[in-house]
Fold Acetyl-coenzyme A synthetase.
Amino acid sequence: MSGNNIYPVSPELAANSLLTNDQYLSEYKASIEDPEAFWGEKGKILDWIKPYTKVKNSSYAPGNVNIKWFEDGELNVSVNCIDRHLASKGDQVALLWEGDSPDQDAKITYQELYTQVCQFANALKELGIKKGDVVCLYMPMTPEAAVAMLACTRIGAVHSIVFGGFSPDAIAGRIIDSSSKLVITADEGRRGGRTVPLKANVDEALTRDGTDCVEHVIVFKNTGGDVNWIEGRDLDWTAVTQSQPTDCEPEAMNAEDPLFILYTSGSTGTPKGVLHTTGGYLVYAAMTFKYVFDYQEGDIYWCTADVGWITGHSYLVYGPLANGATTLLFEGVPNYPTPARMSEVVDKHQVTLLYTAPTAIRALMAKGDEAIQGTSRKSLRILGSVGEPINPEAWQWYYDKIGNKQCPIVDTWWQTETGGILITPLPGATDLKPGSATRPFFGVQPALVDNEGVILEGAIEGNLVMLDSWPGQMRTLYGNHDRFEQTYFSTFQNMYFTGDGARRDEDGYYWITGRVDDVLNVSGHRMGTAEIESALVSHPKIAEAAVVGVPHAIKGQGIYAYVTLNSGEYSSPELYAEVKQWVRKEIGAIATPDILHWAEGLPKTRSGKIMRRILRKIATGESDQLGDTSTLADPSVVDKLIKENQEIN
Ligand code: WT7
């Protein structure tokens, strides 16, 4: 990683962007010196039913973590994302849809979106869904996903989206934890020429104990594939919607009313229900979208993320629509039917702002010029990256090839928990360094601390924390405020701990070095090692398992699993395949281990704690750097593991 390779903002770009560097510096200073005044003003990016008089009320104090923004204001999210644009932009495309197959697409104007959302909201009401009820969405990447989200917000229901790649058990766990009353799904999804059995997965999830909170399942007919039908429980999307009135009075929501729950993996235990609320979240999503992508009238914006992840919430749906933008929703994958698909979609729809992930960039880069063959990509203005550190080679390829050396890259660092982007370049303001997420957004106060929580100054590496709240910050873990405090505010007191490490250079730029906890980042998807281990040990032949991350050329990190079988069981190629399949079925394809290492024993301390530090070093072939192994109960297991690892590689 070099800090010397600088791409300065060109004078034309500075002149044509929303913010120059001087404006960034002075506004940033103002946002830190007086957050009340700054956000009090910026909150006006939204239309409020009842204006707020209080802006910020937050405390990170031990035992009393409490975060509120705009707490006496009232608003409705769907009104901000749709109704208020109708007068000037009723006929402008709101959702541009590109199907998995290149010959399928659709355009939905703001006026049409209004009608669809109101009708669907009325259908939800008729089913007895009320303000505060939790609705689980397990949807394909079709416009109906956005319609369902916005319809929930119209009536004050709280959506909980489960990524369409997750297994029935993962769906069931999230339904149970959030007491979802309704599930919205489709018969099947499509991805890369294959179908995904969404309804069948929901059916199986709902056979699990504890899911009887679900009263109905609304099914959108997407592919027309065969599905099972439970009369009374299952309802057809079109049937419940078509005769509904085309207007629906929006519910006035308090700024701190829950907007959505989104489950994400932590270093321990089951996935956590991150809760975001209405006012602060939308102000922050709208503000960051506008300035990070330098959004201007006429832009066509494409974010390749799935609605099942936070990026799909903040920067596919809410941020762009709150700004009245045209947002492209893509059902497929960037390399189907050919590696040029992403570039072809850019040309076809004249995309100006493109937001994607390093793992997609690396997969295309591996195909070389095939990924841009027959395309010009001349419409592009700004490129974005999110999900994991972007390695300088991938950055360079993205810049040179996809962007024709014309487009700045915004490398945006943030998390499910942060609601929106916290550290990022701003196109007209920030000189770029490939691999660096650069500087904090307005109101964001990052710091680096040592393991004792002492704040480090200057050019240095440390644990990345935030010293104060910003409007988009999560408010709690659904139903478990203690775990919220424990997870994010107890490692270092009076600070929000991100779980990431970072380096700050002599220009004050941040370089994210990756997670410092037991969380993996596989293709930009977050996985807890504990979750994968618990899936592994639920296999009848497995006694013990330990999972670590290893570098992977495309995925960023791969999953390396040490597996100890029950006595009397023997490893075999068949069992190898079976165990991989087992994890896939338990959690989803993204959690499938890349490598299984059959281990007779694992390195443990005398008190029985598995020494992951050692397992990580062995997995990455750095067994010459194991450090002190004298505290192990049985140091001889280490030599065995090293030998076995050499046989694997
Ligand atoms: C973790 C959060 C934010 C939406 C997608 C992922 C890593 C995210 C970057 C970046 C380096 C990044 C961090 C973070 N991460 N963006 N630009 N550079 N690392 O959301 O699933 O909540 O994962 O993703 O490790 O903690 P998430």
DSSP finds 19 helices and 31 strands in the chain. The mean pLDDT is 96. Residues 264, 310-311, 386-389, 411-416, 437, 498-500, 512, 514-515, 521, 526 surround WT7 (CB under 6 Å).
